[in-house]
Amino acid sequence: MKKITQSLFLFTILSCTSNAAVNDFCVADLKGPDSPSGYQCKPPNTVTVDDFVFSGLVAGNTTNTFNAALTSAFVTDFPGLNGLGVSAARLDIAKGGSIPMHTHPAATELLIVVEGQITAGFMTPSAVYSKTLKAGDVMVFPQGQLHFQVNSGNGKATAFLAFSSANPGAQLLDLLLFGNSLPSELIAQTTFLDVEQVKKLKARFGGRGIDYS
């Protein structure tokens, strides 16, 4: 019985080692469907070094509603990240710009400021954690927490972001509230905002639908 147990243990170890070797990486086949476990793997004979290199973290266009730009290096941009649990992005915020309240349901975020000044923070039901950051400062936002970044300096601000997921996802509070098809009066009732203000915000964020009037 002891020999059988030892043999089964050795077989298990070898099987695990073999699987680890086979599954060191799984470059995403972006032509296939995405799933909670990631994309299917490209055939190994089609994988090249370019699948593991991303050269697109350049300054984005900040001429928009938020005066900010996020340039992503997620799995949809960078297939080699598939299944590895990491991704990155570049954040550019013009003077007076901001990244509004949002969450990343699938990832913790690390913010690394490289230029300018950014006031950033996150909140829980019982506390707010906010600080003004300068070049060289790093701040972490736990997974799923509502957080923000505001350019609080006199010039542009730049930061790099790291995420604990190849595809962190994002839910922007403003877009969720005012970019939908719910009637303005219903949104006003559930947010305690003035109806006219809700209509203005819906117009700004692309909301649609029929208003009660």
TrEMBL record:
In which domain of life is the source organism classified? Answer: Eukaryota
Fetch the PROSITE patterns from UniProt.
Answer: GERMIN (PS00725), PROKAR_LIPOPROTEIN (PS51257)
Where does the chain bind oxalate? H104, E109
One Pfam family linked to the record = Cupin_1
Q: Which UniProt keywords apply?
A: Apoplast, Disulfide bond, Glycoprotein, Manganese, Metal-binding, Receptor, Secreted, Signal
Q: Does the keyword Glycoprotein apply?
A: yes
Cysteine disulfide partners in this protein: C26-C41
SUPFAM superfamilies (UniProt xref): RmlC-like cupins
Annotated Cupin type-1 domain ranges read 55-199
User: Where is Mn(2+) annotated to bind?
Assistant: H102, H104, E109, H147
**Cellular component annotations (GO), alphabetically ordered:** apoplast
InterPro entries annotated for this entry? Answer: Cupin_1, Germin, Germin_Mn-BS, RmlC-like_jellyroll, RmlC_Cupin_sf
* UniProt-recorded Gene Ontology molecular function terms: manganese ion binding
Q: Where is the signal peptide?
A: 1-20
Localisation? Secreted, Extracellular space, Apoplast
What family does the database annotate?
Belongs to the germin family.
Q: What is the name of the protein in this document?
A: Germin-like protein
